[in-house]
Every structure is written in structure tokens, then in C-alpha cells.
Design a protein that fits this description.
globular, single chain, mainly beta, Neuraminidase, five-stranded antiparallel beta sheet
Length: 195
């Protein structure tokens, strides 16, 4: 990678593409880059795609499919710090870039020309751990918080998109056992535990 960046978010699309969203070097960034690994799985050059609506750092991201529109996916960014002139503030905003996957041509990805605002989080926060379900249709947000007032949450939120509308819903009857912020989450295959 030819540039320095920290506090960014990364997502992958079924091993077909890697995405790097926002972050900071000296200033917050709204830049988004995609990388298509070659047949050996090694990264190639990073290409810039449409800019996010907000400059962001300490945000979360993921890629989910639309439950009603075949071959339509959303690269989603949410929460974190945004630049709101002239200060940086925590946000509850969610934005998404529509991606279409071709049924031919090796499943080539086509990006919409701009990001769109989607449903807001219930709190202004960052440091949210996120994972995508194995079917690719739900993004799960775990915990999150704000340093400025020591707010942290144990909420588990679910984001799903249907016909281009993406909204957050609380997980029914489930919360983390403890409040969490800046945690790491991943799906662990049952084979790891011999189940």
C-alpha cells in the first residue's frame, strides 16, 4: 500500500475483493479503495472507488446482500468519528454503496456512482465490532461506545437490506454479557470445537 492510514475499516467480498474505508493519516478520510487479489491470492494495486458521504475513523463496515434483489450488495460504513466543521464528533450515521455483481464476466463488480444515507444507529458511537452472517444477508453490530462520556453498550444490532432499504433492528432477547467497545468479533466454525 502506497499510503499511511490508521483507524480505518476493511471488508471483503467472498474473497473476490478487499475494501479499505476511511481512516486517518493526519486528517480524517472519506476515501474508499478496492483491491482484487490475483489468482494466487496476493493483493494487486489498490483502486479508488466513490468517496463516502462522511470522513470517518474508528468506524465499522461490512458487505451484505439485498434479500430481494439478486446480485445486489451493499458496502456499508457506520458509526465512528466524522468531521463536522471544525470538530470531530461521534456519529450514528450509516451509509452504503450499492455494488452489482455480474452473472457473467467472472462476476465482475460494478459500483454505484455515490454513497447513500441509510438507517441510523440508536446511539452516536464508534468502536463497534461487526460480522456478517454466513448467508451474507445480515450485518451484526456488537457493542460500541464513546470515550468522551465513557458510554459503552452491550447491544447487538442487526442490519438487513431489502429492496434498497437498509435498517437497524435490535437483536431479540440477546445482548452481550458485558458492555464492549473496540472489541474484535469473528465467526468461529463449529469444527474448531469439534461440534
Amino acid at each position: 500500500m502506497e499510503f499511511a492510514v490508521s483507524h480505518h475499516c476493511m471488508a471483503s467480498s467472498e474473497g473476490q475483493a478487499l475494501f479499505l474505508l476511511g481512516g486517518r493519516d493526519e486528517d480524517l478520510s472519506n476515501q474508499v479503495f478496492v483491491n482484487y487479489p490475483n489468482s494466487d491470492g496476493n493483493p494487486t494495486n489498490w483502486e479508488q472507488i466513490p468517496l463516502m458521504l462522511w470522513t470517518r475513523d474508528s468506524h465499522s463496515c461490512g458487505i451484505i446482500s439485498d434479500s430481494e434483489m439478486a446480485a445486489t450488495y451493499y458496502l456499508v460504513a457506520f458509526g465512528g468519528h466524522v468531521q463536522y466543521n471544525p470538530v470531530q464528533v461521534m456519529t450514528d450515521t450509516t451509509e452504503a454503496l450499492e455494488i452489482t455483481k455480474a452473472s457473467s464476466n467472472g462476476g465482475e463488480l460494478t459500483f454505484d456512482s455515490k454513497w447513500n444515507q441509510k438507517g441510523d444507529l440508536p446511539h452516536e458511537m464508534g468502536g463497534i465490532a461487526s460480522i456478517v452472517t454466513s448467508d451474507g444477508k445480515t450485518l451484526i453490530a456488537l457493542g460500541g461506545g464513546r470515550f468522551v462520556d465513557n458510554f459503552m453498550t452491550s447491544d447487538i444490532l442487526l442490519l438487513q437490506c431489502r429492496d434498497g432499504t437498509c435498517d437497524w433492528k435490535p437483536s431479540k432477547n440477546q445482548k452481550l454479557q458485558q458492555d464492549r467497545m473496540s472489541a474484535v468479533a469473528m465467526i468461529v466454525p463449529s469444527t474448531v470445537y469439534g461440534v
